[in-house]
């Protein structure tokens, strides 16, 4: 049985070249591989072809499906059998049950008044908007020998918008154990699909390869 912590070296059918490329990119388990889409893997691991990466993702998806099926099968086997209840003797006469009055009817009968107290309904909090990954951090902005800890460089992988349209847009950067930092895209970097991002607070090198959400 496989889980998210299962090492990719335990997955059958992966070549030595594929494993080395994945390990070089910092992807060593099934859980880590599942975080990336096909396009993200192409940008992260250019040494592997798109066909190889697609076959790899399909294999992991197949393993997950088999794992879920085994879990369901195991659960059904372990369900305790309910004992059959003995048939009750219905030949005895059943005494009529007095109809109980509702609490409101009893209160009206006793006081002659109906309480007008209203209960306040709790309004549900609006859910957090669904975000999508548009890129990943690859470096800090440097000027000479100085490094800006609150300015990072990111590569945009989302092709639904032009780079010029993203300038001035607010983003959310997530890394580590659910650490989130807000920021803003302040300009392009170079001629490629790279941008500069100014963050609300300084960060450590742990943000390298962190996901940028729109």
Question: What is the element layout, followed by pairings?
Answer:
Layout: H1 16-24, H2 30-34, H3 38-44, H4 50-78, H5 103-111, E1 133-143, E2 146-156, H6 163-166, E3 170-175, E4 179-188, E5 194-199, E6 211-213
Antiparallel strand pairs: 1-2, 1-6, 2-5, 3-4, 3-6, 4-5
Q: Largest sheet, order of strands side by side?
A: 1-2-5-4-3-6
In the CATH hierarchy, the third-tier topology of the largest domain is known as Thrombin, subunit H
By CATH, the architecture of the largest domain is named Beta Barrel
Detail the poorly predicted runs.
none
What fraction strand? 15-25%
Provide the CATH superfamily of the largest domain: translation elongation factor selb, chain A, domain 4
Q: What fraction, in percent, of the residue positions are helical?
A: 25-40%
Number of strands: 6
Structural domain count: 2
Give the helix/strand class: alpha+beta
Shape: flat
**Helix-strand string:** HHHHHEEHEEEE
What is the tally of helical segments?
6
How would you concisely characterize the structure shown here?
The protein is α+β, with helices and mostly antiparallel strands.
Task: Write up this protein.
The protein is of the alpha+beta class and 214 residues long. It folds into two domains: 8-76, DNA polymerase, domain 1; 133-213, Thrombin, subunit H (Beta Barrel). It contains six helices and six strands; from the N terminus they run αααααββαββββ. The protein has helices at 16-24, 30-34, 38-44, 50-78, 103-111, 163-166, and strands at residues 133-143, 146-156, 170-175, 179-188, 194-199, 211-213. It has a six-stranded antiparallel barrel. It is flat and about 90 Å long. 13% of the residues are buried.
């Amino acid at each position: 049985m496989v889980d998210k912590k299962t090492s990719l070296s335990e997955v059958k059918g992966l070549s030595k070249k594929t494993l080395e490329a994945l390990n070089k990119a910092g992807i060593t388990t099934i859980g880590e591989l599942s975080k990336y889409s096909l396009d993200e893997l192409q940008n992260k691991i250019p040494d592997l072809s798109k066909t190889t990466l697609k076959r790899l993702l399909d294999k992991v998806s197949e393993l997950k499906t088999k794992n879920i099926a085994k879990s369901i099968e195991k659960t059904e086997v372990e369900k305790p059998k309910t004992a059959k209840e003995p048939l009750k003797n219905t030949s005895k006469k059943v005494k009529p049950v007095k109809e109980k009055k509702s609490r409101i009817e009893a209160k009206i009968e006793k006081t002659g008044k109906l309480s007008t107290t209203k209960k306040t309904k709790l309004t549900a909090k609006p859910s957090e908007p669904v975000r999508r990954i548009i890129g990943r951090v690859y470096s800090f902005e440097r000027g000479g020998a100085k490094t800006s800890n609150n300015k990072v460089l990111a590569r945009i992988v989302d092709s639904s918008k032009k780079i010029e349209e993203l300038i001035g847009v607010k983003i959310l950067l997530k890394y580590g154990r659910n650490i989130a930092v807000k920021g803003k895209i302040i300009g392009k970097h170079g001629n490629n699909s790279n941008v500069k991002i100014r963050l609300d607070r300084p960060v450590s090198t742990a943000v390298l390869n962190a996901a940028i959400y729109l």
